[in-house]
Automatic annotation (TrEMBL):
Keyword Transferase: yes
Protein name: GNAT family acetyltransferase
Lineage: Bacteria, Bacillati, Bacillota, Bacilli, Lactobacillales
Keyword Lipoprotein in record: no
Natural source organism: Lactobacillus delbrueckii subsp. delbrueckii
Molecular function terms from GO: acyltransferase activity, transferring groups other than amino-acyl groups
Amino acid sequence: MQIRRAQFKDITAIMKLLSQVLEIHASIRPDIFIPGTTKYTVEELTTIINDDQKAVFVVVDEDDQVLGYAFTQLQEQPFSTNMVQFKSLFIDDLWVLWADSTQRSQGVGRALLDYVKAEAKRLGCYEVTLNVWVGNDSAINFYKKNGLKVKETNMEFIL
């Protein structure tokens, strides 16, 4: 297993994984997500892969097949009258392929998350942040198990 920056050759595999995670989100929030779609188009993904502020990391097996990805974005909080200045590495999306339940708990997701944490440290970030949908219990449990804590809560009132 190796973790590296995503390359153009990885786009097809990443798009397949993006469709899998979208189906999870669509099952949780069918009022918001459209099944059979992806978060990004091939063109958008190509742009993101080439953007240093939005690094995409992939975990690959010994045959260089993509097993998972982490989309990240460097964010900076400027100094203001009420907040100190700091940098944050935001995980826009993280997903690991599980062909079946026997492939879970093999450490792939943890390795990818640890890699992102190390990258954030290298960049001088104060924190790593992400959003997770209520109802995505396996993701919530994974993040909690790996040391993430709730920072703030986003609430809605559906009209």
